[in-house]
Specification:
It contains 16 helices and 18 strands. It is α+β, with helices and mostly antiparallel strands and 507 residues long. The strands form five sheets. Strands 5, 8, 11, 14, 15, 16, 17 and 18 form an eight-stranded mixed beta sheet that branches. Strands 4-3-7-6 form a four-stranded antiparallel beta sheet, with helices on one face. A hairpin with a 2-residue loop joins strand 12 and strand 13. The longest helix has 29 residues. The protein is elongated and about 125 Å long. The N and C termini lie far apart (83 Å).
């Protein structure tokens, strides 16, 4: 400051001190009013637009980050993973179309689907915002209206929040019972023909409610199969719904890397259930007795196996990394589970067994739907010992050449003749990783960059690493080297499958 300016300021201070108490009070009161107005204006700007320092324009090729509201990295990582699944966003757009006619805009934002759609569209660069960091506190607020009390200052689990979102979306969809329709064969086996359905049900099918046409794309079904080891009689198949596959990591074998296929085979591996009453064995035993003598129920050993009755469009795989020590304390498993950019699920798909008399006819008629590695609806585990001499081993998800790992968005089918035409082929869209132990840690996400606006149906080969509000580019090799906690895959349909899906929708 200039010397003259200093003398001027000192003079003003001396005049204020020489003034009376009333004059000094009046001046201080005016400054207090001005300060209060400025504070109120700053608070209002913070509420409406968030912190001024965080409002930066997003860099080209990146996506917005999410503000950490305390310990909300679990929510931020999950939202980034969901925003990389175009089928899920499309389903939300179709589902929320019913609210467009609502004139009251304030009630519209009370729905979870609408709030989630706005967030995912913004994170996939489909919104109007160009902000570098977004605030997802609105999701926690709307979940409280669904009676979920999730604190932003307590550490939570991303997989548990995924279940909260899917179950809340189902509650919002309708209040009908979630019991599978007995005649809903189309939703279980979309590739099955109408003639086969009529033959199995011995009559025409009753109309199926629209309840099942609005299932979210993560919805799938598990089958539970029980076969008697003595008479090979198969009990009725039981069906259960799922929105994610929670896979335990089997014990590691020294010198052999752990792959996603090992976890999947462990999930569907058969188990023996002893001392089970077999009605068929009892019936056979009764037919061999004389004079209708009463016999006891025959108890035998059954083989139980899980399979995937219906594979969803979006597949969420949860790798269970929680284990327990001998003292009963929780431990985290840090070993790396190998996974690929593409995932083949054909050998884990349940197939309805057919009678031997019509087996040859069906094989000729539906040779294109034959799935290698299955027998009467039960998976056969591929191994090198079971392969004929001179042939390559069956493709294993998570164990393949490095050249395949570096593929950029296309599936090199020519490199794997055994899987030249997979029906259930999935592409990796996002990976959620947890750093830390069972007591504390941090969630980050690897996800694909959104497609360019010029070609919205394309799939980007650029990967991003996101930690709350920090976003940077990443390589595919870095993604595949991470210790995954959640894997988000989306099904890839061939041109023939797209045409069949369009015909199914028209029918």
């Amino acid at each position: 400051m200039l010397p003259g300016g200093t003398a001027e300021a000192d003079g003003a201070v001396r005049r204020l001190l020489r003034a009376g108490a009333a004059a000094r009070y009046k001046v201080m009161k005016n400054w207090g009013v001005i300060g209060g107005v400025a504070a109120a204006l700053a608070a209002g700007m913070y509420v409406l637009w968030g912190p001024i320092t965080e409002r930066k324009r997003r860099r080209k090729g990146l996506v917005p980050g999410l503000l950490n509201l305390g310990n909300t990295c679990f929510m931020n990582s999950l939202l980034q993973g969901l925003s990389s699944c175009p089928s899920f966003i499309k389903w939300l757009e179709e589902f929320t179309a019913q609210y467009k006619t609502d004139q009251n805009q304030s009630t519209e934002h009370q729905y979870l689907s609408v709030t989630l759609l706005h967030l995912l569209r913004a994170l996939s660069c489909q919104g109007v915002t160009e902000d570098d960091v977004l605030d997802a506190s609105c999701l926690l607020e709307v979940l409280r209206t669904y009676r979920w009390q999730i604190s932003s200052f307590e550490e939570q689990d991303a997989h548990e929040l995924f279940h909260v979102l899917t179950s809340s979306l189902e509650d919002e969809r309708d209040h009908q019972p979630r019991v599978t329709h007995l005649f809903d064969v189309h939703s279980l086996e979309p590739e099955i023909t109408q003639k086969q359905i009529s033959c199995r049900t011995r009559g025409s099918l009753p109309p199926v409610s629209n309840h099942w046409k609005s299932q979210h794309p993560f919805h799938g079904r598990l089958t539970s199969n029980m076969v008697c080891k003595h008479c090979e009689h198969q009990s009725p198949v039981r069906y259960d719904t799922f929105d994610s596959l929670s896979l335990s990591i089997p014990a590691a074998v020294w010198g052999r890397p752990m792959t996603l296929d090992h976890c999947l085979h462990h999930f569907i591996s058969s188990e023996s259930v002893k001392d089970v009453v077999c009605d068929n064995c009892t019936k056979i035993q009764a037919e061999g007795t004389l004079n209708g003598q009463s016999i006891e129920n025959q108890r035998t050993t059954f083989v139980k196996q899980l399979k995937l009755g219906k594979l969803p469009q979006c597949l969420c795989i949860h790798l269970q990394r929680l284990s327990w020590s001998n003292q009963g304390t929780p431990l985290k498993r840090h070993e790396h589970v190998q996974f690929n950019e593409f995932l083949i699920m054909d050998i884990y798909k349940y197939r309805i067994p057919v009678h031997k008399s019509s087996q040859n006819e069906l094989n000729q008629r539906h040779s294109d739907e034959t799935t290698p590695g299955t027998k009467d609806g039960i998976a056969v585990k591929p191994s090198g010992a079971e392969q004929p001499s001179g042939t390559k081993p069956v493709f294993m998800n998570g164990a393949c050449p490095s050249s395949f790992l570096m593929s950029s968005g296309t599936f090199p089918l020519a490199a794997f003749p055994e899987c030249s035409s997979p029906v259930y082929l999935y592409r990796l869209m996002a990976v959620v990783v947890h750093h830390g132990d069972m007591h504390s840690g941090h969630f980050v996400t690897y996800r694909r960059s959104p497609p360019s606006p010029k070609n919205p149906l394309s799939v980007s080969s650029q990967w991003l690493w996101i930690s709350d509000d920090t976003v940077r580019k990443a390589s595919l090799q870095e993604v595949l080297s991470s210790s995954a906690y959640l894997l988000f895959y989306e099904r890839v349909h061939s041109r023939v499958q797209h045409q069949s899906l369009e015909l199914t929708v028209e029918e």
